[in-house]
Amino acid sequence: MKIENIELFYLSMPEILDEADGSQDALIVKVEAGGLVGWGECEASPLTSIANFICPKSHSAANPIRDSVINQNINDLNDVKKIIQTVKHKSLMIAQTPHTFSGIEVALLDLLAKKENCPIYSLIGMNKSKPKIAYASVLFGKTPQETYEVAKNLKNQNFKAIKFGWQNFGLNIKTDEDHLVAAREAMGKDLELMVDVGAIWGTDVEEAQKRLNILQNANITWLEEPFFSDAFYEYGQLSDKTNLPLAGGESCHSVESAKNMIRFGKVNFIQIDAGIAGGILAGKEICDFAEANNVQYVNHTFTSHLQLSSSLQSYANSSKSLFAEFPQQLKSLAWDLTENHIDIDINGCINIPTGVGHAIKINQSALEQYKVDVQIYINKEKIF
Amino acid sequence: MKIENIELFYLSMPEILDEADGSQDALIVKVEAGGLVGWGECEASPLTSIANFICPKSHSAANPIRDSVINQNINDLNDVKKIIQTVKHKSLMIAQTPHTFSGIEVALLDLLAKKENCPIYSLIGMNKSKPKIAYASVLFGKTPQETYEVAKNLKNQNFKAIKFGWQNFGLNIKTDEDHLVAAREAMGKDLELMVDVGAIWGTDVEEAQKRLNILQNANITWLEEPFFSDAFYEYGQLSDKTNLPLAGGESCHSVESAKNMIRFGKVNFIQIDAGIAGGILAGKEICDFAEANNVQYVNHTFTSHLQLSSSLQSYANSSKSLFAEFPQQLKSLAWDLTENHIDIDINGCINIPTGVGHAIKINQSALEQYKVDVQIYINKEKIF
After folding, report:
1. Predicted local distance difference test score (pLDDT) of residue B118
2. Residue B172: how many CB atoms within 10 A of its CB?
3. What's the predicted TM-score (pTM) here?
4. Which domains does chain B have, with CATH numbers?
5. What's the average pLDDT block by block, 10 residues per block, for chain B (384 residues)?
6. A266 touches chain B (CB under 8 A)
7. A296: which strand partners?
């Protein structure tokens, strides 16, 4: 069968707040072939990715992604791999390409898994999935007291691991310590506590070093994104100076960039977003490389459960990579987008859906409710 | 003064050919403040970068670039540095951002240099410019005979260095050798011969190794882009196996990624495009780091002389970095875009323009002649 149709849906909350919350809008991909439909989700920004998808050609290495996908064969995994290579070569010089293509790759695998009547993880070679320890991914409170309450509340919801994100952290050591002490106090000693500082120290290794003690005292499982996403040298420097495990990789937009983060950044946890890194197959390749180097693979997800299930497929059957990011505090768009959702079990684990494809059903009415109407004209001709 | 206006001009040849020629379209930036005008050029694709410039906000790290630039102060270099930091933080999660912002940074420096009535290189701290050995940047011929004729012709034009680009090279060792022998024969033994293979070997170090002999026999000055742009490990592997100097970096989209290419890729020449890496100031920072590590800085330019002058500013006064890429075979758009052009002197060198700003004048009629009309509507409202 051939890829007959690809549609992009730009969805948005009525108001976008100045928050570090990636669930406020979405770019959803629908692909159709042989009577089947596959769905995927790209990382934002939707308009930039739409332009990347349909832009006029600039030269032989800067083509619109659409041209490398539409009308191509899609009968087996090799066809998807061919499309991945074509996009890599033909749209190499457009920086947005990995963001845009990632959602398309997920939709193609979803469609192909539907043809084979199996989960995506089976399609890509895994015979079963294993539960992961879900870590609730939330932002630090405005005060240590608020952090305490958020942690307490999540513990009561049965979470065994909590990651606090960058808001209100990283600028003042005393306040940082108060947040960490509050979180640990609320969680007790057995729960896993992760800290994500959102690249706040840029390339300043010393600023990170100053916090090693307070982070170690809180017995954290990892310190995430101390530096800019491509500051591999600084990651490596910090790693050489401490036993504190480092995590990073959410902005890795290729298999190579993730390998760099592992080889040169010396992280202990590599965090990959199926909507950024190139898709689920890229994630699987990164997972294999990571685990061969004693690095745990972790999904990065801060949007819908469509993206959550997609990001879990790459390491579904791994018994070395134990954790899964489970975003909380989603905006209504990201929640309403899907008819079904992933939940934690009594052990605080999430089970990867065992249904066909990624097994997440799109709620058609949400596509209407949150729709952003986009029209693009080039020389008076409508191209989107 | 404040940045009052920013305009983007999408220009294109009437027909875009399936060639590795980046001069077939262009995105030109015009900024206005205090009665002054500055000009810059972004890397393609124009529509994707326009979308990046004006896209609706997605979240606090995915803002339209325009919002971080318009109405900002622009009185001195610190104001430009502030804007660079703001864009980095506020548009971090849109992959296209460095491509789009690079042209804006150049335009801002051009405007500021006009206020100070000096060249950009003076504005950023260099007291004079030094001539660079121009290398003609051309594609290999369809046959070795054609390569011979191209080389002969360029030698007759007084070039002391010629770089042959990837077309028709890298797939068959015998043909590759014939091209190299033909080029060297036409050039004689004293001219500098560079070879650019355009990442054709992906991550396959062995495929590169197979050509080391024929490249060494041709006495080349450097081998450029043997691997994907972020395959630092493979660059480093090849570097460890040969004395043949490596070059790369044209896709580096940040100071950090260029430092990675130097530290881990172990290149001997780092090639930076002012329209990709973040602008002229990013280039200067990379140059300082490169030269401190005995690596030569080289401009990457495959478009207009506006971009050529911009890319030369970052290392204008260097006496360690000797070469400059001088694109030949430009399409008429890239030539017609500017009223003045840079030429080689009798020593085969190019002299960086000593006029105010980047000293390249935009040809207003070309902005009309090659104009692509773009209109973008979001929920029926025209945003571009």
Report:
1. 98
2. 10
3. 0.96
4. 5-119+364-382 (3.30.390.10), 132-350 (3.20.20.120)
5. 98 95 96 98 93 97 97 98 96 94 98 98 96 94 96 97 89 95 97 95 96 97 96 97 96 94 98 96 98 98 96 98 93 97 95 96 98 98 97
6. no
7. A269
Question: In this complex, do B94 and A232 lie within 8 Å of one another by their Cβ atoms?
Answer: no
Of B59, B259, B379, the CB nearest to A373: B379
- B60, B203, B232 member nearest A18 (Cβ): B60
pLDDT tens sequence across A260-315 = 999 999 999 999 999 999 999 999 999 999 999 999 999 999 999 999 999 999 99
Q: Is A22 touching B (CB cutoff 8 A)? A: yes
Chain B residues inside the 8 Å CB shell of A92: 199
d(CA B225, CA B239): 12
Q: What is the pLDDT of residue B20?
A: 84
Instruction: Please report which residue ranges of chain A form alpha helices under DSSP H.
Output: 46-54, 66-69, 77-90, 97-116, 120-123, 144-156, 173-187, 205-209, 212-217, 232-241, 255-263, 280-292, 305-313, 332-336, 364-369
Query: DSSP secondary structure string, B78-126?
Result: HHHHHHHHHHHHHSTT-TTHHHHHHHHHHHHHHHHHHHHTSBHHHHTT-
B292 touches chain A (CB under 8 A): no
Of the candidates A12, A51, A95, the beta carbon closest to that of B99 is on A95
B376 contacts chain A (CB < 8 A): yes
Q: What is the CA radius of gyration of chain B?
A: 21
- Looking at the complex, does the CB of residue B251 fall below 8 Å from at least one CB of chain A? yes
What is the predicted ipTM? 0.95
A374 touches chain B (CB under 8 A): yes
